[in-house]
Amino acid sequence: MTPPALTARAMAAAVRGGADPGAWARAAADRAAANPWNAFRPFHRDAVEAQIAGANRAGRLAGVPVVLKDNLADEGQPCGCASRILEGYVAPYTATCVARLRAEGAIIVGRSNMDEFAMGSSTENSAHGPARNPLDESRVPGGSSGGSAAAVAGGVVPIALGSETGGSVRQPASFCGIVGLKPTYGRISRHGLVAFASSLDIVSPFALDTRDAALVAEVMAGHDPLDSTSLREPVGDWEGACDGGVSGLRVGVLAEGEGEGVEPGVAARVAEAVESLSRQGAIVSRVSIPSTRLALAAYYVIAPAEASSNLARFDGLRYGPRAAASTLAELYLRGRGQGFGPEVQRRILLGTFALSAGWAEEYYVRAQRARARITHDMEAALREVDVLVSPTSPTVAFKLGDRAMEPLAMYLADILTVPASLAGLPAVSVPCGMSEGLPVGLQVTGRRNDEATVLRVATAVG
Fold this sequence. Notes:
By secondary structure, this protein is an alpha/beta fold.
C-alpha cells in the first residue's frame, strides 16, 4: 500500500469545493478495519457515518480521515492504551485535541496500536502484539506511536495523532519516512490524553509533509481551561510559516548527534541535508551541548517516577477486568501483575524506587537538576543559532525482536530525541533520504514557542 495521492490540505479543499465529504473517510475506515501491519485497534464503524453526516464541510480539515493513538479519549470509543488492564474500557468524554479536529471537519476513522501506556520505542510492548513497518514488515515502525506512523506511511490516512514523551512521534516518523511534529510543551492540551509522564507528555501529529503537520498542530493548539499546563501564547500561522525559506537563518549542527553509535548511512544523509540548507542560504555552524549526554539517564528517572504516580489509578478495581482474589491486597497484586506488561512493570518499579525515602535525593532530585542544566544549555545555544539539527535516530528502523529483550538497547533509540522533550522545546523529524533502503530522519529543534522557524527549516529539507 502506498501513501495517498492527496495531502490533507488537498482533500479538505476538494470537500470545500463540493466533493463527497465521506469518500476518503469510508475508504480509510475500511483499510483500518482490515488491520494491516497490526497497526490498528477496534473502532466502532457506525461512528464514521455519524461524523460524515455532521461534518463541517467548510472547515480547514473538511472530510480528512484521521487515526488516533489508543491513549486518546474519544467518547463512546474503546481507549485501551494497548494494555490488558484497560480491556473493555470505553472513553466517557472526548480529548480537547480531538474535538478541535472535528470542529474543523476532520473525521476519526480508527485507533492505532502502540507500546503499552506509551512505554517503548518499537511498538513491540503492546498487549496486542507488535506493529510492523509498512516499508519493510520485518522491521519495527518505531514507538511508542508506531501504529499511527504506520497508518500514515502505509497510505491509510494522511494524518494520524500520536503522543510524545521522549520521542514517541519523531522517532517513528524517522523510521517510517514521514513527518512527525512535537510542538512546545503545553501548546496542545493534554486533556483526554492518558497520562504517562505529565511534565513531558504532548499530543503530536504525523503527516505526509510539513505543511499538513503544521496545519493539524495549529488546529489543535491553543489554551484549554481543562489543562492547567496549556499555554496562553498566541499560536500564529504555522502552515504559512512553512513557505518562509531558510535564507539568513542560523543552523547549528549538534556535535553530540555526530558521535559513536550513529550509523554511517544516517550520518551521510544528515550531512547532505545540512549541505542543502547551506546552499539555500542558511548559515551553518557546529554547536556542542555536552550536557545533552545526560538526557537519557535523566529521562529514565523522571519519566518512570511520574509514571509510577500516574498509573497508580489502574488498580484492578475501577478499570478493565477484575482478577480473582480473596483479599484487597491480593486483588491489587494480581490485577496489576496480570494487567500490566513487563515494560510497564519495569518502569513502575524503577519510578517507585527513584521516589522512595532515602533514594529520592540521590536519583529523582539529581535527575531534575540535570534536566534544568540541559534546558538552560539548550536555550543558551539557541540564542546563538535559530535551530539545532541532528539525526532523529542514530539508526534506521531495526528488525522486529532485535532489541525486545534488551531494555537498555531499546532506550538508546531515544538518545537524540529526549533532550528536546526534557527542555520542552519544539522539534520535528522530516525525511532526508534513505540508507540501506530505509528512511532517515533529520531532527530540527527550535526555541520555545518558535514552531514557525522549526517548520521553515524542516520544509526546506523536505
